[in-house]
Amino acid sequence: MFTDGMPDLNPQALLAGAYVGLFEMGITFVLWLMALKNCERTANISTLAFLTPVMSIVFIALILKEQIASATYIGLAFILSGMILQKVLPKLCDKHMPIKP
User: Would the pTM count as exceeding 0.70?
Assistant: First the structure.
């Protein structure tokens, strides 16, 4: 930017910026806020944010037919394992260490 100057603003670039701002940033955040406001426990909804990378990789592999690196699958396994542990561990802890009143 300092050596070549500012890029030219053309209609295609402005439309791309408007698309990103509206659909990828604006509407999605409004929908996410509505989901958080309408649920009883926000913890249940907030874990859905971790499914976004999993869904993205599935879409990239199936629709775009891109090759997915093995390290990506390892990362996805960590994400899914963490989500499973988040649900299973509290139940196991409650069963083996009940809280006495």
Answer: no
